[in-house]
Amino acid sequence: MKFSSNPDVCAIVSQSLKQYPWLNWECGGRHGKIRCERTRDFVPIPFSPSDFRATKNLRIQVKRLGEHGEGFIAARQRH
Fold first, then answer.
1. Integer Cα distance of 31 and 45 in angstroms
2. What is the pLDDT of residue 21?
């Protein structure tokens, strides 16, 4: 399955889905999502990231989602 046009993003997504079995891939309108079954929180996955920091940020976000169940919704509630 192709998660992104960036091979590094594809590698991060496929590795995290294997490492954390409670994370699921969902297709979205503009972006796909990795959703945690436990908390129903998610991390959006860019199809064509334009920022050079995208892979670093995605790796950190997916790790936080896999280990703590905190993703986009938890980050919005903190601010």
1. 6
2. 95
